[in-house]
Amino acid sequence: MSSPTPIVPVTSVTSVTSVTSIVPVTPVAHEHLTALRHAVLGFDDCVDIAHRWGQQLAAVLPAGGRLLAAGNGGSAAQAQHLTAELVGRYREDRAPLSAICLSAETSSLTAIINDYPPDELFARQVQAHGRPGDVLVLMSTSGRSPNLVAAAVRGRRAGMRVWAFTGPLPNPLAAQADEVLAVDAPLTATVQELHLVALHIVCAALDATPSATAGEVTGQSVAGPSGPAQQPSPRRSGGSPVKGPLVVVGDALLDIDLVGRADRLCPDAAAPVVEDVVELARPGGAALAALLAAADCRDVVLVTPLADDEAGDRLRGLLEGRVAVVSLSGGGPTSVKRRILASGQALARLDSGGSGAGSGLDCQIGPLPPDLESLFQGASAVLVSDYGRGVTAVPQLRELLDRAGQHCPLVWDPHPRGAAPVPSARLVTPNRSEAAALAGRLDGGSEHLSSAAMSAPPARSVVAVAAGDADTLMRAWGVSAVAVTLGEAGALLSYGCGAPALVPAPPLGTVDTCGAGDRFAAAAATALGNGALTAEAVQYAVGAASRFLASGGVRRIPDPLQADNSRRGVQAADTELVGSAATGVTVCEAVRGRGGVVVATGGCFDLLHTGHIATLRDARQMGDCLIVCLNSDDSVRRQKGPQRPLVSERDRAQVLLALECVDSVVIFDEDTPAEILRQLQPDLWVKGGDYVGTDLPEAAVLARWGGQAVVLPYLPGRSTTRLVDQAVATTAAHPPGR
Questions:
Q1: pLDDT reading at 441 higher than 80
Q2: Are residues 147 and 111 in the same domain?
Q3: 660-679 average pLDDT score
């Protein structure tokens, strides 16, 4: 029998080389060991972090604290290895320590994945088990797993200290953790091997700390205090919303609307003559985003180049008392956009003070304010509002933004002529055309060709095109998520892997969408700064943008902004619009602005039947929009009795809005729609039924503004009361159970 191969001790990095010289090594193994050797050379910082973490665990776990750990794939096995060492022992006997591997909770994992979105896989367990002062360890070689990022956010919200083992920086998980142990190695295997080394250092450091083994026992538990241990505060308050300001960075503009009426054309050209012009000024660009963010946040700071010119002074006046301004030196004159509008339509736009069609990447600003970095470090969230003027391309500012995104949520609203988002961005929010232009540029195509893709055959839907563009942008930028806003279709959220999420928007009809993208980005940044998950933030932002448009959009900007109902910033937000009078008025104004005819009808519409459908369809054909005035639940009860309605007002409105012929639904609580009609002032009021030859009570109301009431015949035998009576009779004749 041959003698065994001698064991060569490895005591240093150089001894790895000696092993390869003694033991025959294949080329594949040599490559693997070489990668490991290179990674070990830069591992000193990781050793220090792992040792410190072990000492901190020695203070937390024996005093009644808990460690939760999670990972995917091989990292899941390492997370379980860590918890096993803590519950059992590493080298020396000690009391068992509370440690749970979330990746190994099979029943919980399968239940969650069956009932909830994939991102909730670990986040829901963290919410269930995590307590203030506990430690959450998340392991990922890439740092890009959405379920781990979501768990980190949920852990902070629970007041936990979040530690991340990752591969090279930057990555989304590192941006959400309180502290990071990042192995700078290109191979996944190398990262995993050094993660295991770091775990053993954590365990060794814990065991070497006297508090971990004081009162050690074998075979019995050690009772700790009833509450979690007091710990030094991490560099970011775990879980509770950070109380710093929302910081908006970007290109501030002055927007001016010149609003008038156009009833005739110039005698010497086919151009409208606009008369009775009124000038309305408001903040634009990043300044508009900051002002809209002030509807959600008490403290908003705008960082922008702001010139000492007339437009700049005017812009400062519009922001005064609402938004604090940190002015960057340089940047040229203040950009001004002037829209000429008549009858609700934009006829032309006149731009001045900006680079217009240029690349927008040659902005020259002076030295940055010395306290700018501390402002970013103390922010609850940072929003970059890029309008292509070049501010976001300044290298020193980009470096500060990238660092900011590693400790607080960073939302980037891009521009086709602007700079690429920094990798630490949590969410990038292009609109549909911006995403197409940016993706086309990254794929080597032209902006024109990429935009043309949106008019492709119906087989490629708007959603499919947006999903493809979002994936392209995710691969190119390396950010955590991209949300492409799709106008009336809502927003599409992509993490670059798996199926994207579509967040629908409530129907609004025809509205002026100016400022909707700024409202969306500002709302998303606010929600993320309050601890929301990315998906929650996008849902809230869709609702906030919809409410903004329904209430009049930028036309309301000169007035003091009213905050949304919830400052929490994570509520599902489409229900406020259903039945809103403001929505109906907005639709009416838009139609009248185009010279269209507004048609309205009304009723209970308790059980929708073919008679209703016929009336609604015919009424819509009489004009350019149809507004349905819907009796509220209380109004129906007063008219029909205590057993009605069968369907709630909210559900009745949703069903009506799903019909193509209905443009808006307005719920009223009175016995008659007279008051809501005075607000809408429709041109036609249509009723279905046997009213011919009788006076409609609404006719006198419409006569005040020259409106007309008309009657459409019902289909015979179709009514909700008849349907209910038939159902009751059928049930009586054939009781259940027979």
A1: no
A2: yes
A3: 88
pTM of the shown model: 0.54
Half-sphere exposure of 76 (CA within 13 A, CB side): 13
Domain boundary among 507, 542, 573: 573
Predicted confidence band of residue 219 (pLDDT cuts 50, 70, 90): very low
Cβ distance 398 to 543 under 8 Å?
no
CB-based contact 549:587 (threshold 8 Å):
no
Tokens (6 digits) for 13: 């990095």
Instruction: Classify residue 332 by burial, with Cβ atoms within 10 Å: 0-12, 13-18, 19+.
Output: middle
pLDDT at res. 85: 95
Cα 337 to Cα 281: distance, rounded to the nearest angstrom: 10
Q: What's the chain's Rg over C-alpha atoms?
A: 32
Cα 393 to chain centroid distance, Å, stands at 24
652 and 559 in a common domain: no
Domain containing residue 476: CATH number: 3.40.1190.20
Give the up-direction half-sphere exposure of residue 262: CA atoms within 13 A in the CB hemisphere.
21
Same domain flag for 616 and 677? yes
Instruction: Please confirm, yes or no, whether 184 is among the known catalytic residues.
Output: no
* Mean pLDDT of all residues in 490-494: 89
- 532 assigned to some structural domain: yes
Q: Read off the pLDDT of residues 535-594 as tens digits, 9 standing for 90 and up.
A: 888 989 998 888 888 767 766 564 433 334 333 333 333 434 455 566 677 778 777 877
Number of domains in the chain: 3
State percent of the chain over pLDDT 90.
25
pLDDT for 18: 44
Within 10 angstroms of residue 299's Cβ, the number of other Cβ atoms is 15
The CA distances from residue 630 to 269, 579, 600, 667, 675, in Å, are: 47, 8, 11, 5, 13
End position of a domain, from candidates 534, 554, 573: 573
Contact between 446 and 438 (Cβ < 8 Å): no
Return d(Cα 473, Cα 490) in angstroms, integer: 19
- Within a domain: 461: yes
In angstroms, the CA 684 to CA 670 distance is 20
pLDDT of residue 243: 58
Read off the pLDDT of residues 638-648 as tens digits, 9 standing for 90 and up: 888 887 888 88
Q: Which of 257, 518, 564, 663 is catalytic?
A: 518
Residues 439 and 555 in one domain: yes
What residues contact residue 72 under an 8 Å CB cut-off, 6+ apart? 103, 140, 145, 147, 148
Per-residue tokens: 447: 């902006």
Name which residue leads in pLDDT, 14 or 657: 657
The span from the CA of 350 to the CA of 222, in Å, is 75
Q: What is the CATH number of the domain that holds 73?
A: 3.40.50.10490
Same domain, 436 and 532: yes
At 225 the pLDDT is 31
**Residue 446 domain boundaries:** 246-262+276-573
Q: Does one domain contain both 533 and 618?
A: no
